[in-house]
Amino acid sequence: MPATTPPPRELHERIIDWFGVHRRSLPWRDDPAPWRVMVSELMLQQTPVVRVLPVFEAWMERWPTPADLAAEPSGEAVRAWGRLGYPRRALRLHAAATAIVADHGGEVPSTYEELLTLPGVGDYTAAAIASFAYGRRAVVLDTNVRRVFARVVEGVQYPAPTVRRAERDLATSLLPDDEDRAAAWAAATMELGALVCTARSPRCEACPVADLCRWRAAGYPEHDGPPRRGQAWHGTDRQCRGALMAVVRDADGPVAPEVVAASWSDAAQRERCLDSLLDDGLLDLTPDGRLTLPG
DNA sequence: CATCCGTGGGA
DNA sequence: TTCCCAAGGAT
Questions:
Q1: What residue is closest to C3 (Cα–C1')?
Q2: Distance (Å, rounded) from C-alpha A194 to C-alpha A198?
Q3: Residue A169 lies in a domain
Q4: I want to staple A273 with a disulfide (CB 3.0 to 4.6 A). Which of A33, A101, A203, A240 is the partner?
Q5: Within-domain flag for A260
Q6: Is residue A282 part of a domain?
Q7: Whether pLDDT at A129 is above 70
Q8: Helix (H) or strand (E) run with residue A12 in it
Q9: Burial level of A128, CB count in 10 A (0-12/13-18/19+)?
Q10: How many Cβ atoms are within 10 Å of A129's Cβ, its own excluded?
Q11: Nucleotides of chain B touched by protein CB (<7 A)
């Protein structure tokens, strides 16, 4: 029953050892070639592993290198993205591949700073690629790691809505000095959050640091403060855009406006979303006014 | 810094 | 059924 922050060495040891035994076999983990890691990370942004698996395999089969992807129209990436959601990620991955070919000799860059310049690659993804693909020492702070730290170290049920300075400093202070160990730590803490220290009904009986966990020691206090706001869905532009995209994505060729219109009844919202999709580059207009994925 | 951006499955 | 949320990023 620790009264204060658990000793980092003990955390490192136990969580990394646990990872050695319980780590999942994942295609981007078993063969962590940089491009594979990068593709997986973009796909995994806000999308569960099980849904990513089949799309990832097909993607890598078709586009084994950034150059392979960059050589095709962005619309092909959007179609191959399927129903993973947030299709702008497909556009960003295509743009990133193009940038990798143009500016990095076709090789996924290895440093956090270079990775951060790529479209679709933010703080988390840059750190993840540097760490998982290149074994670099990087602060990998995703939703899983944040939850683990919130509970074990801070003693609260959930992390704050956004990463603040103090939280980043904590994560930095916890990162092992040794490069290899830092990379193992990043993967291990993520996996612990994904498999054991889950958002709902955590499996504390299977946790290697349960006896060091401040949240557990405190008796699992419920989250207090403002309620955690979920995202609305029904009737939103997001739902509308998704419906419109599905029609074009699942069609063989260009789709007539009337066909697209049938998928969303609210005309004003439909037009607004159509405009935004064209503006985003997720859709294109043919000369005769039909809708296609971008060429 | 808050909001927007898809989708589907489990509790 | 409804609600929650899953390896975030861009603006």
A1: A230
A2: 6
A3: no
A4: A240
A5: yes
A6: yes
A7: yes
A8: helix A8-22
A9: buried
A10: 31
A11: 1-9, 11
Q: How far apart are CA A253 and CA A292, in angstroms?
A: 7
User: CA-based angle A195:A198:A200, to the nearest 5?
Assistant: 140
* Domains held by chain A: number: 1
Q: What is the pLDDT of residues A37-75, one digit of tens each?
A: 999 999 999 999 999 999 999 999 999 999 999 999 999
Strand B atom within 7 Å of A269 CB: no
Q: Residue A3 above 90 pLDDT? A: no
For the ranges A3-12, A62-71, A87-96, A175-184, the lowest mean pLDDT is seen at A3-12
Distance A93 CA to C8 C1' (A): 14
For residue A57, what is the enclosing H or E element?
Answer: helix A49-62
CB A237 within 8 A of CB A273: yes
Domain containing A256 equals 237-292
Q: Using the C1' atom of nucleotide B3, identify the protein residue whose alpha carbon is closest.
A: A231
Per cent of chain A over pLDDT 90 is 94
User: In chain C, which nucleotides are within 7 Å of a protein Cβ?
Assistant: 3-10
Is the residue at A65 inside a domain?
A: no
Residue A4, pLDDT score? 66
Residue A230 has pLDDT above 90, yes or no: no
